[in-house]
């Protein structure tokens, strides 16, 4: 948009650019800056317009973008241009991701090189390597307490190792995803050290207070993320003689985005990682980016403005790079991280579908899809040019993040139902073979979340201990059923390392004093490569899971209707054990696919009449793409086996 004030300001900024910037070839940079500047200017004014140093800060902002553009390697600039042309590239069903810890998966970055074939064997072409930036040993929160944002932790390797890996991935057609921990730094970060030494400019990078007055006011309405291990949201720093806001662990200091200097520093870091060849940046804990007294300090409007500004700036320098929002919040809030009031995504193109994940586990526990159906109905439609990251497990705990209203509508009492879920997954409910652990128990609210490996939560560990073939079979079926859902739902499926071979809980973290009080480590294993090798031996659980997933992944890639357009219809059926939806190709050039999941441990009849009225089952038989079987559909019902799924071509 052309707007006089912002345009004349842009002219002034460009004239004042330092010679080392001005005399570069910035053609594409200038076009993009011109196109985005009005938006950047408006957001920056809303957030920081009242400050006397506004003019100086916006000059620095533009210089930061320009400097990083100058550093952007030629091959990445080429990718940018290609992706601008084909801007829906990431909605394709071709992408299948895996999240992994570099050390847990392969020892270090060099080790990763020799394991890429394993990922490719499974069909993975998007790798999210969990955070690897320099962290203090022990106080690292698994990489989320960063001491130096521009250095790889020596335990993993060096920046050169990462560059080599990125180049190797590129040659294989695989995407690289890395984290930028935007909400906080380690208390050992240089900025925190300077703040501690009394430097006011750096104390302003954080939220620091002389006494408890303001912290106490904030505490009136702020929930706790880690109530057991890090109660409260503020920590007294002896050396600084002040309280500092620490929403997560006491050693993670929250950054203060009311200060434009913080925004510009973090943008510079985002662009630094974009220039390292990262295709997708996972922005951690984005719901927490803006703190406002009187509220929960989550999902504030300004947090969205910060992300929009980050996106607009990144589009100028590195438009080929996508953002993932990690916002594990209520369904109606998650969707806003694509960009509020927009048609096309204008914050993060990708967001974790935490609601779907939690609902899937709920359906496993109840063997019933009533809440799953309701809960999915409650997620607003995603935007164009936005997509979900669908996952079953990740490195964090599982929270029961669906709405109370939906729980009530499904016929349960919210508190009792959430308690049932914790009991079920910790194996404290009759008939449950799940072996998870309660995480983040909050005595005040009665809440708890769940840790545990996927296979253990699905009952495989319990079944193996009982040596019961039927229970082992049921656990494997559950694992495949869950994956069949994330592979077909619409969005990028993100598997978690170890799950494709049925990795169980790993309690070795208990021997490490820095980890033993955080049971999320039970599902962050060192991959057992002997176990992984069994994936090729028929008769083993590893083979059963791996070979089935491998097949589903390659099938997914062949089905155009699985690309993530606005192309899913949820279908009501008369049997509560089923989750049924159809996927279609918007151009209608390829067949519709009907996805059916039976969450019960018994076979269940699916009534066909209602679906016939929707145009399905018009012929005498139907083909299941997963098994290749042809199913007769002349009757009124189709029997669906226990814990099974179909991808029917209709
Ligand atoms: C993110 C990470 C989580 C971490 C938290 C604090 O949510 O996923 O593992 O504890 O941020 O950085
Ligand atoms: C909470 C936060 C999420 C974080 C998790 C860590 O769920 O919302 O961001 O990853 O805690 O366990």
Walk across the major sheet and give the strand order. 1-2-5-11-12-13-14-17
Q: How many runs of DSSP E, i.e. beta strands?
A: 25
Assign the structural class, choosing from mainly alpha, mainly beta, alpha/beta, alpha+beta, or little secondary structure.
alpha/beta
**Strand percentage, roughly?**
15-25%
Average predicted local confidence, pLDDT: 96
Q: Give a list of the ligands.
A: alpha-D-glucopyranose
Under CATH at level 1, the class of one domain stands as Mainly Beta
| CATH structural architecture of one domain | Sandwich
**Named CATH topology of one domain:** Immunoglobulin-like
For the record, give the distance between the C-alpha atoms at the N and C termini, rounded to a whole number. Answer: 46 Å
| Shape category | globular
- Rg estimate, integer Å: 25 Å
**Which sheet architecture does the biggest sheet show?**
8 strands, parallel, barrel
CATH level 4 superfamily of one domain: Golgi alpha-mannosidase II
Q: If helices are DSSP runs of H or I spanning 4 or more residues, what is the number of helices? A: 25
Helix content: 25-40%
Stretches with pLDDT under 50, minimum 5 residues: none
């Amino acid at each position: 948009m052309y707007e006089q004030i912002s345009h004349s300001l842009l002219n002034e900024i460009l004239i004042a650019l330092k010679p080392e910037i001005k005399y570069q070839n910035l053609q594409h940079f200038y076009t993009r800056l011109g196109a985005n500047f009005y938006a950047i200017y408006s957001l920056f004014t809303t957030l920081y317009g009242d400050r006397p140093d506004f003019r100086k800060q916006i000059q620095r902002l533009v210089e930061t973008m320009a400097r990083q553009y100058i550093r952007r390697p030629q091959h990445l600039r080429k990718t940018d241009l290609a992706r601008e042309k084909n801007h829906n590239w990431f909605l394709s069903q071709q992408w299948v991701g895996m999240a992994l810890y570099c050390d847990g998966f392969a020892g270090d970055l060099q080790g990763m090189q020799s394991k890429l074939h394993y990922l490719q064997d499974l069909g993975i072409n998007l790798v999210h390597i969990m955070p690897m930036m320099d962290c203090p040993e022990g106080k690292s929160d698994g990489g989320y307490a960063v001491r130096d944002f521009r250095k790889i932790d020596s335990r993993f390797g060096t920046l050169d190792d990462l560059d080599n890996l990125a180049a190797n991935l590129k040659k294989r057609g695989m995407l690289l995803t890395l984290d930028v921990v935007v909400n906080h730094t380690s208390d050992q970060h240089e900025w925190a050290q300077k703040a501690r030494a009394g430097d006011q400019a750096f104390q302003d990078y954080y939220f620091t207070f002389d006494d408890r007055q303001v912290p106490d006011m904030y505490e009136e309405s702020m929930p706790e993320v880690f109530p057991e291990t890090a109660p409260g949201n503020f920590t007294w720093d002896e050396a600084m003689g002040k309280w500092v806001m620490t929403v997560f662990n006491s050693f993670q200091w929250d950054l203060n985005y009311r200060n434009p200097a913080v925004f510009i520093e973090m943008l510079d870091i985002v662009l630094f990682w974009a220039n390292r060849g990262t295709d997708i940046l996972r922005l951690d804990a984005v719901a927490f980016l803006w703190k406002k007294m009187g509220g929960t300090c989550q999902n504030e409007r300004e947090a969205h403005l910060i992300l929009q500004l980050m996106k607009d700036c990144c589009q100028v320098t590195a438009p080929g790079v996508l953002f993932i929002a990690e916002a594990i919040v209520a369904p109606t809030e998650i969707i806003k991280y694509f960009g509020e009031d927009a048609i096309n995504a204008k914050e993060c193109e990708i967001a974790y579908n935490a609601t779907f994940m939690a609902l899937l586990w709920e359906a496993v526990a109840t063997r019933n899809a009533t809440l799953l159906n309701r809960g999915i109905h409650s997620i607003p439609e995603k935007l164009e040019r936005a997509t979900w990251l669908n996952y079953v497990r990740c490195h964090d705990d599982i929270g029961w993040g669906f709405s109370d209203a939906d729980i009530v509508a499904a016929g349960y009492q919210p508190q009792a139902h959430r308690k049932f879920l914790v009991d079920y997954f910790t194996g404290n409910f009759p008939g449950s073979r799940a072996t998870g652990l309660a995480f983040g128990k909050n005595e005040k609210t009665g809440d708890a979340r769940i840790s545990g490996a996927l296979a253990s939560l699905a009952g495989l560990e319990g079944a193996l201990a009982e040596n019961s073939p039927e229970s082992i079979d049921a656990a494997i079926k559950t694992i495949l059923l869950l994956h069949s859902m994330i592979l077909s739902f619409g969005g990028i499926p993100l598997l978690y390392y170890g799950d494709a071979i049925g990795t169980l809980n790993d309690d070795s973290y208990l021997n490490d004093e820095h980890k033993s009080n955080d049971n999320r480590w039970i599902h962050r294993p060192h991959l057992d490569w002997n176990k992984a090798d069994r994936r090729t031996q028929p008769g083993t659980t590893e083979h059963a899971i791996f070979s089935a997933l491998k097949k589903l992944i390659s099938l997914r890639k062949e089905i155009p209707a699985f690309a993530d357009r606005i192309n899913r219809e949820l279908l009501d059926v008369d049997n509560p054990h089923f989750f049924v939806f159809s996927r279609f190709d918007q151009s209608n050039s390829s067949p519709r696919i009907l996805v059916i999941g039976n969450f019960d441990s018994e076979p269940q009849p699916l009534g066909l009449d209602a679906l016939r009225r929707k145009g399905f089952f018009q012929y005498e038989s139907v083909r299941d793409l997963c098994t290749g079987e042809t199913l007769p559909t002349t009757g009124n019902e189709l029997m669906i086996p226990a814990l099974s799924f179909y991808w029917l071509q209709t």
